[in-house]
Amino acid sequence: MKYFKILLLLLSFLLFQKNVYSKIEIDANYVILQDHLSGEILFEKDADVKIYPASMTKIMTTIVVFDLLKKGETTLDEMITISEKAWRMSQSGYSSMFIMMNDQISVENLLKGIIIVSGNDACIALAEGLSGTEMDFVNLMNEKAEEIGMVNTNFNNSSGINDVENYSTVRDILKMSRYMILNFPEYYDYYKDTSFTWDRTGGDPITQGNRNPLLYKNMGVDGIKTGFLTVEKYSLASSMKIGTRRLTAVGSGFETKNSRSRESAKILNWGARTFDTIQVAKKDEPITSLNVWLGKKNKVEVIVNEDIYLTIPKRKKKIIKAIIEYNGPVHAPINKGEKLGKLNIYISGELTQQIDILSNENIKRANIFSRLFKSLNFLVWGDV
Predict the structure, then answer these.
(1) Is 58 a residue of the active site?
(2) 214-257, pLDDT tens digit by residue?
(3) Exactly one of 45, 58, 175, 321 is catalytic; which is it?
(4) What's the CATH fold of domain 30-254?
(5) 118 part of the active site
C-alpha cells in the first residue's frame, strides 16, 4: 500500500491591484455578513454580543411552522380558530394583520401575515393553533434553536415583542436565516412578496406592504425580516441573490429606518463586489476514480457528500488546489459510501478544508483465479 496524491483542481486568480480588498465601515452596533454557499463569514462587528431580536424572532416562528408542514403535522389549508389573546394583540398598536376573534384563518394566510406584514397577532394565532399554547410553541422554537446551533439565544415569545428573556445575537440570527433558506426553499419564497391583502371578516380587505425596504431596490434581495424595539433601535436580516451566489447579512442597532436600509444595502453590495465564490465539487457527482486491488473492477468512482464552495477576495492573488490523498490501490471488496480518503483544499499553500471522499459504488472481490492472475502480474510487472 502506498500513499497517493491526486491533484484534482488547480486555480490561479491573478489580479493586479495592490490592496487585498477594501475595508468597510457599517453604521450599526452589530453586523455580520456571510456567503451563503461556502458559509464563509466575510465581515463581522460585535457579532456575539447579546441583542433583543425584536421581530427577527418571527424567522424562528415560521421555521417551526415550516417544520410541521414538512412533517405532515399541519397543512397550509388547515384552519386556525382565533383566540381572544391573539385578537387583542391586533388591537394593541403592534404590527398586525387585524384578525378577528373566533375567525377561522388558514395556516397559509397566517404565515403571510407574519412574514409579509409582521403580524404579532398572527404569531400568537399560529402558536396557539398548532401547539395549544404560545409557551408550548416557544418550547419548539428553543428546541429548534438548539438543533441549529444557536448557542446564545433564548426565545420567550413567538413574536419578539418586549421581553428581556427573548434574546439572541446577530451570528445566531444568521445561522437561523441560513438554515431556513437551505431547508425550506419552497416556503422561503413567501419572504419576497411585497404585499399581502387580508380579506378580513366584517370589513373591507386590508392590503399592507412588506416592511423589508430592500425588496423594493431591484438589487436581488428576496428576504428576510425587519425588527424594531426602542432599546435595540432598528434591525434587519437580509439576503441577496445574484446569479447562483447568495449573501446574507444581519444588522442590529441602526439608528433610523433610513440607515437600516442604506447600511444593509451597503454591506450586501460590498460583499458582492469584493468577493467571488467558486464551486470545487458537487455533492454525489463523481470527482475522479481510484485504482482498486483485486476487485471485479479496476477503478472505483469517488464522490463527496456535500457541495464544496470557496469564497475568495477578488483583489488578491490566490492559488487554490484540491488534492485527493488516499492509501492505494484500494482493496476490494468496497461498499458504496465507504470512506476511501480525503479531499484537501489548499489556498496559497495553506490547508483550509478536509472533506471525506466516499465510494460511489459497490465493488466485489474478484474470483480466486482472477486474484491469482493479478497477483502474479503485479509480482512480474508491478502493474495493479
Answers:
(1) yes
(2) 999 999 999 999 999 988 899 999 999 999 999 999 999 999 99
(3) 58
(4) Beta-lactamase (3.40.710)
(5) yes
